[in-house]
Fold this protein.
Amino acid sequence: MKIQVVAPWLLIFTIVISSCTIDINQPSAPSPTALSEGNPTPQTTNGTLSPFTTILPVTWGSLNLSGKLVYTSAVFQNQSVSMGIRLLDLTTGDVSTIFQTPNGGWIDAVAVSPDHQQMILSYAPPMNTPYGGTRALYRLPVDGSGSPQLLFAPASEYDQYYQPEWSPDGNFLYFTHLNNNQGLLTYDIWRMPFPSGKPAKLADQASWPRVSEDGTRLVYVWINSGTGANRLVLANADGTDASKLPLKGTSTSIIDAPMFSADNQSIFFSAPNLGQSSTPGVLPVRLNVSKPLANGSIPSDWWSVPVTGGKIKQLTNIRSLALFGNYSPDKKHIALYSADGIFVMYPDGSGLTELVDEVGQVGGTVSWIP
């Protein structure tokens, strides 16, 4: 596992409350063109993932993994940075690029649709383009054809949208909304019928929506705007009957990136080790904030708790940043994104194996498709 300094501008978030009206009838913004198969293939430099294509040694061959991983990765070249959406073939080790942002563009999350045909991107175009610097939700085919299309325009210059999540049937899209009016950051969770329904707010003071495998329940992180402490909340898929999960055996108030187990009986989540909620550990992260953050910016591990609440269980001992997980199609493994690379593990946290050793030391997501 490579240990490097995390880009600090990606780590500063505070989670509080807000409400907002979204106008989905505003015009779409033009976007950069996805990379085509005809593009040249630059050489890799100092082990950094090529912006276009490369081949990784299949060091995980004994696991007999199949399918492909769709993940985000940063490329730093000549004091500039761009983000790419990569496609790793787990059988051959081939890595191709579905989409690469121009310099100054940023992608912090990608959600692949249940039919594996399209993606929703949380994408901030470069500053010299329409909606430049504003994170909004864009559609893009998984094969990279065409260019990202704005799903709906931000309601104002202060509004941003990220953490997209599909319902298992593909009929709904969940996401987190951020408003930064007058320097006050506020967050809430919304759901919209896909592709063009009217969005509705489901929860205030909340982020990180994830839906159960059977599509009936929603888990998210509720934030106390006064103290910064956060809690796991379980609700119906439409946000009703929300209740905080009682957790036993932890003193940390920093919880993020929850997801349901394959049988929907447990919640996996990221959190620092007990007693280490304010300790940066092996990564020299320096944050100019006075409250705990629920954004993956503190070295953390994977934990689990029953959906009824109760005693938590530590699954890993990696103390890494920006953790995000996604199941394999057969539910036998979990693909794990971290600032240190892409890993795979069994659902009980054992068998942690590195697949990709460089994603640019930034936050992102991974999806596993057949």
User: Anything to note?
Assistant: Residues 256 and 270 are 5 Å apart (CA to CA).
